[in-house]
Amino acid sequence: MWKKFLMFLPVLLIAGCATVTTFTPLTASEQPRNPKNQYLVETTLTSDQQSLRWDSIQCSVVVGGKIIPMTPVAKLNNRWEGYVPVPADQTAVTYRFMFDYKYNNFGTAPRADTKMSPVYSLKIVD
User: Which helix (H) or strand (E) holds 21?
Assistant: First the structure.
């Protein structure tokens, strides 16, 4: 009996450690063109990872290979905003959110990790 249990123990441990992280874009998929060519994007992050150090999260938006830091939204938890540049001759841009953070690890100092959101697109309408 114990041999069968021990055989499945690694599978049970891995399944028990699975976490769910959800990125929620709060930006409309279309925005009217503006004279500064800067467009506000917002996101939230939710996670059930208990070891996540929420105070360590740094959020950025990645556009065309550029990493642009985002700022936390005042008085709202787990929400960030930033501006995406879109040249005047373009009508659309793709972007994704990047979250750098630390998490607690057994027996060692906190470790760093990064999570990337799916790719989103923003259409600029004249």
Answer: strand 21-25
Q: How far apart, in whole angstroms, are the C-alpha atoms of residue 30 and residue 53?
A: 34
CATH 3.40.50.150 assigned to 19-125: no
Global pTM reads 0.82
pLDDT tens digits along 67-125:
999 999 999 889 999 999 999 999 999 999 999 999 999 999 999 999 999 999 999 99
Helix (H) or strand (E) holding 14: helix 2-16
- Tens-place pLDDT, residues 35-51: 999 999 999 999 999 99
CA angle 31, 47, 104 (to 5 degrees): 130
Residue 94 backbone class (left: φ over 0; alpha: ψ -120 to 50; beta: rest): beta
